[in-house]
Design a protein that fits this description.
Chains A, B: It comes from Streptomyces jumonjinensis. Two copies of one chain form a homodimer. Chain A has one domain (2-79, 115-241): 3-Layer(aba) Sandwich (Rossmann fold), CATH 3.40.50. Chain A has seven helices and nine strands. Chain A has helices at 47-63, 83-97, 104-130, 146-155, 172-179, 198-207, 227-241, and strands at 2-8, 14-20, 23-29, 35-41, 67-71, 135-143, 159-165, 185-190, 213-218. In chain A, a hairpin with a 5-residue loop joins strand 1 (2-8) and strand 2 (14-20). The first copy, chain A, is globular, with a radius of gyration of 17 Å.
Amino acid sequence: MQFTSEQRLDDGVLEREFTLGEIPGILWTPASAPAPLILLGHPPLGLRKMYPRLVARARHSAADGFATATIELPGSGDRPRLPAAEQALADLRRAMEAGEPVSDEIIDALILPLVDKAVPEWQAALDALLSLPEIGGPVGYSGGVISIGIRLAVVEPRISAAGLFAGSFVPRAMFEEARQVTIPLHVLLQWDDEGNDRQVALDLFDAFGSKEKTLHANMGGHTGVPQFAGDDAAQFFTRHLK
Amino acid sequence: MQFTSEQRLDDGVLEREFTLGEIPGILWTPASAPAPLILLGHPPLGLRKMYPRLVARARHSAADGFATATIELPGSGDRPRLPAAEQALADLRRAMEAGEPVSDEIIDALILPLVDKAVPEWQAALDALLSLPEIGGPVGYSGGVISIGIRLAVVEPRISAAGLFAGSFVPRAMFEEARQVTIPLHVLLQWDDEGNDRQVALDLFDAFGSKEKTLHANMGGHTGVPQFAGDDAAQFFTRHLK
């Protein structure tokens, strides 16, 4: 892990860009150290595009005493494209524009290779981040592609709690993995999410094996998550990581 | 409204029993006055039996700066029985013990007369409570028989926000009333509630006309609401009544 830039934000949060091999990432740390860590998931739109929302989440978490970090997803930003996923995305768009149902094959081709490639990268990032003296204590995962969160919750024992956003296409195979999740979960659902089948989201919530799992459903579309929903998620992490 | 007893609880909350005509009730006020008011709904099991849970909710609310009050429901406690509701309750128990579905007729007979009789009583209590100098500001309604909460939210303009518990039988007619609700709602659902059909609860949540409505679903049965769910509800009221 190599730090490539460093700036102090006006609220005292230290923001550092880094590379992990060829993968770019960003680490935010609060003044109080060592701090527990929340990994910030995000949709595969590229870190640069996602930066405003990521830094807002990072500041909010820092105010609660958490360090946060994120890395570029495979195929996003300046990283090499994933040709199979690009093809699946084109198929998905075509299906949605034609008003056709999105087939399981398209969803599998879009999501499963992304999960297979991304999860070991997040684990490698975790290795590097946890070796820093300013990071300590338990780790949470928050948001982003829900299937990446599910796989991480199953395979990565250092993650103690996860806040998931029921807002992306979920391969059927992930339902089986969801049954194996046992860590506390906080699941956010936008009730009228145009890109998300509500019943699938409810079925997925039902499938999670965790004894403590909470569903917070709010009104509005995919990007309409109300401010107070973020506050509730913050309290979930404070309860489990502090 | 006649106060019949008064005691100061160890956390400084003033607890006063009162009668409103023939209806007994309890008022809890925090040290800071005037305070906004939350009406504490409860199942029709009698105030005496419900007292431990009610006083816990009252103390929690007082710590957040709220006054709380509750009244005995028609047919409960020492109040005269409602013969039609008693018959419906016997029919309900017989159906449940026999493992039969509970018919719409039984649910209507159990709930609708209770709502019709209880709601004007809560409104009369509100008249009396809002005339006290130690009560001021907006009013919330919390918990109890959800159909009473729905009707109150529709007919009582002084109630600005409601926290409802999706945990009781709901007559089909109440779905129509739910569509007329416009105040902010915080709906609690116990995912594995043995006495509550999950799909009916989700459909009811969907039916509410409110632009701001949030569903919080937690694991466990009817009485297994986790502590943090109470904290989330408290924040909802703080957001809307302060």
